[in-house]
Amino acid sequence: METGKGQASGPKKSPFTPKAIIHQRFGTKACYKVEEVQEVVQNGCPGLVIPHKGPCLYRCSLQLPEFSVVSEAFKRKKDAEQSAAEKAIQKLGIQPKEDNLNVEQAWNELAGRLSYLFSIEFLSAIHPLSGHFRAALAREGDLNGFVPVAAIAMFDAKINSLCKYISSEMESNHLLVMSLIIEAAKRLADALFFSEEKLSLKRLTPHPPEIIQSLLKNEPNFPESISIEAVRIPSSTEKTVESVILNASSGIYYLDVIAKELGVKDASKILFSRNIGKASSDTRLYFCAPESITIVPSSELYMKQASSFKGYVNTIATYLSGQEICGDAILASVGYTWKSTDLYYEDLSLRAYYRIHANKIPSGIYKLSREAILAAELPTAFTTRSNWRGSFPRDILCTFCRQHRLSEPVFSSDSIEPLPDLPGRRRLRDTLSGGDETNEGGLAATAVAQEGCSLVYRCTVKIYSKCQDLILLCSPKESYKKQIDAVHNVALKVLLWLDGFLDKVDMSVEEMTSSAKGFDILIYPQQFVKEFSLCQFLPKYRWSSATLAGSFLCPSYSNVQNNPLEDEVSSGMTPSISSGMTPSSGSLVCVTYKIYLATERECTKEHLEGSEEFEFEIGSGAVSPALEAVVTQMSVDESACFTMELPSKEIVLAVARDSANILSLLSSGTCLVKCEVTLLRVTVPLEDRMEQALFSPPLSKQRVEYALQHIRESCAASLVDFGCGSGSLLESLLAYQTSLEKIVGVDISQRALARAAKILHSKLNGNIEAEQPTNRVKSAILYKGSILTCDSRLCGYDIATCLEVIEHMEEYDACLFGDTVLSSFCPQILIVSTPNYEYNVILQKSTPQYQEEDPGEKSQQESCKFRNHDHKFEWTRQQFCQWASELALRHNYDVEFSGVGGEPNKEPGFASQIAVFRRKDTSPVNADFTEHCDVIWEWSSNNSTS
Which residues form the HTH La-type RNA-binding domain (predicted)? Predict the structure, then answer.
């Protein structure tokens, strides 16, 4: 079901779940035990492909005094529990009460429920509503014994359930529930008295004095005065949100205290929202009821007209609560609970208020889960479960939907069995030859390139409104070896788009649909805008990335050369002895950091947030770009101090524990945000660690030396590195004397190119200043763009390299890259290296199990994993040879095979297999393509300060 056709006329199922029925009959004697059931998916290729775990399932055993039952396996624990309870009901022969109440029966049961609530028996019950009844008996004067109808409507679930039978609009209209309660109370005119003026109900026959005395004796001994911190949200946008203190005591009804704060006589004129934030909390919005209410004996009552409130619509309070609120509102955490008869209360500060706002934004949910609002960012890529820090994407999306009162997201995973014999490559040839592969080409492109490989997974997610209208559908084409990875990645796509939308909620429908398409998302504008219409009235809460900004430094820090790629950097490194290990893309780093709000001269500073051990993965976008830019320039045990752009006041207050001091500092107008960071440790990617454990020098250096040998033999003057990343190859080449005069790097990652530029700029300028250059390089350029698209500036180079890059693409794209390079760029020599999958068993047997291993997976050394979580495929020697040979034949190149690490005539060959393509035709290349790449950085020996 994708769309809902209006609201139902009433509940269609039994009002009690199977678990509720079992609880009614057995109470605590019913014991549920849930255990995990693991299914293994057979892949049919032992020795080459990793056995895949099936989805995580749960089975529940229910032990009752007379017998026990066991459920089937389910994906969710609660479904397994309900299934076990349902089996027990069937075995007991219990017939659940069908939902066959007509409207008149519902009215009668509603009246009966009211009669019970005002009974002596209910007074001593532990129930959120019973506290209000006891407090009503302690009220003085003509308010004594009166219980606000709003409290009854809010805190009794059975009342609300019965009201659904009478009116289908009840769930979306809290005032309508009140009107139905009043109508039911009139049927009990001989027992209950309704005061229209007080909008409250009272028992006609007073409770016996001994009952009241008994209740008073059992009441807790509260202090004479209770001060509760709360937040006032004004309806006027010209006024600011501020903290208020509610002064209550054991003899005063807390709703009367809130009423006084809002400027009305007593609790009878106070309404309150549903829970704000966590469902288990008692944080609610309190606001004034309409000034004039007329009771009409009909189920189609005045209460539908919520717009009859007088005063301004409080857009912020309305957004937080999901119901229309006019006038000022009080946000407080106070009330009665199911746990005891005591009044529960806790302070709610401005910090908590702004965190509630943060929890309605995907990036805010992630930041809060990491307790790092200023430092963390919602990552742009989901890598491995063990490298991900904070709440997982699926959980964040579920939280977001709950916060915005949407239905739980519906994930649908499909397993795909890839076609055998390198389907991606074969499908590419068919497509180029004119075959119609519009449907199957996408399937083949996402296959894992191994003979007889196992299933891969795709996932689709749908988001519905509470009325079951489909508002968003995300169906990516990417597939993954693990089902859970497919789920998290599709959730992350939706989160990243929602984050962008909430940052610019006033975008047109055309902008909205266009931006969503880039994330493989289809939105249904009419339903989507309806659900998020209130967002456009909110002030802009900028939860976007902070950037580096020039500012003042602590005198103990020294300045570092500014980087032309970044914003002005004012950073310093403390003089310390470092290990020399620096982070690279994919590294897992751990830092300690402190962030302060300070005045320019640092006369005053307030601590905002910090962590003794804060981990994140370089290159995944998991932290502020400012923090990552500094950390990537550091070595282990090195420290730095830098300033960041001052974020919005709302963000600062969301982390500030002393809001008064922070507000004072912010009002000075001379504030800056200062960060102190120390790099504690660097865990290099698993692929690097495996190689370092077995090879000396490391494979990465051996690949560079292999490329260097061919550069020298060919006397190449120009080189282009496809997929240059952070410039490790280009940097390494500068340490040797070669014939190269021009070096070029191309990559899709702006972040990686920024790091490459820093390193190359420093190395090249250092050689010039030393007046003893170790190479003949006269120019260097870094381009940002796809290596799958032709650009005339990349054509005709003497030598091109593509080292350990193609395995990060989908296999289809790797094939497309080969055709593009040899048919359009036409280098004289092309060197391509990629992992030899057959060598993985040796690498992984020489390496202990590391953090990247999925803790839920059993270690099986005889089965080989890919070397890096980002690898889309890894080829055997035969597969690589077939790919390269066919490529060379199509484009008039010769190809020879070699490698580094291992021995060619000894199984299983080289660790990194290399193909060297040599162009047969030496005529000049005629390039006539558009220039789609952007120049990110350019250096010339004639202008070394560029």
Answer: 100-211
Q: State the virtual CA torsion across 879, 881, 884, 886 in degrees, nearest 10.
A: -80
Contact 36, 29 (CB under 8 A): no
522 with 473: CB under 8 angstroms?
yes
What single letter denotes the amino acid at residue 531? E
Structure tokens at 342: 């005591």
CA distances from 913 to 34, 97, 714, 789, 835 (A): 48, 69, 21, 25, 6
Q: What are the DSSP calls for 463-497, one per residue?
A: EE-TT--EEEEE--S--BSSHHHHHHHHHHHHHHH
**Non-local CB neighbours of 551 within 8 Å, separated by 6+ positions:** 570, 600, 643, 672, 674
Helix (H) or strand (E) segment spanning residue 166: helix 157-166
| CA-atom Rg of the chain in angstroms | 34
Q: DSSP code of 391?
A: S
Residue 674, helix vs strand vs coil: strand
Q: Is the separation of the CB atoms in 669 and 621 below 8 Å?
A: no
Report the alpha-carbon distance of residue 648 to residue 546 in Å, rounded.
Answer: 10
Q: What are phi and psi of 661, to 5 degrees?
A: -65, -40
829-844 burial, b at 16+ Cβ within 10 Å, e below that, comes to bbbbbbbbbbbbbbbb
Is residue 375 within 8 Å of residue 363, measured between CB atoms? no
3-state secondary structure of 448: coil
CA distances from 557 to 41, 548, 587, 615 (A): 57, 16, 27, 24
Residue 277's H or E segment, with its range, is none
The answer to whether 430 and 391 are in contact (CB under 8 A) is no
Pair 680, 592: CB distance under 8 Å? yes
Q: Locate all alpha helices (DSSP H) within 852-925, ordered by sequence.
A: 877-890
Of 359, 168, 170, residue with least CA distance to 277: 359
Q: Is the peptide bond before 908 cis (omega within 30 degrees of 0)?
A: yes
The secondary element (H helix, E strand) that includes residue 54 is: strand 52-63
**Dihedral of CA 71/74/77/78: which sign?**
negative
- Residue 595 tokens read as 């962030």
Q: Token pair 């293994």 is at which residue?
A: 40
Residue 186 main-chain phi, psi, to 5 deg: -65, -20
pLDDT means over runs of 10, the chain (946 residues): 36 64 82 82 43 72 91 90 92 70 87 91 86 88 91 89 79 78 91 88 87 66 78 90 88 90 89 80 88 49 41 84 89 88 89 91 94 93 84 95 91 71 36 34 34 70 91 90 90 94 85 91 91 74 50 31 36 43 80 91 84 91 89 88 87 89 84 92 73 78 90 93 90 88 92 83 70 72 91 92 92 91 93 92 60 42 64 90 94 94 86 94 74 90 64
Task: Please indicate, yes or no, whether the overall pTM of this predicted structure exceeds 0.70.
Answer: no
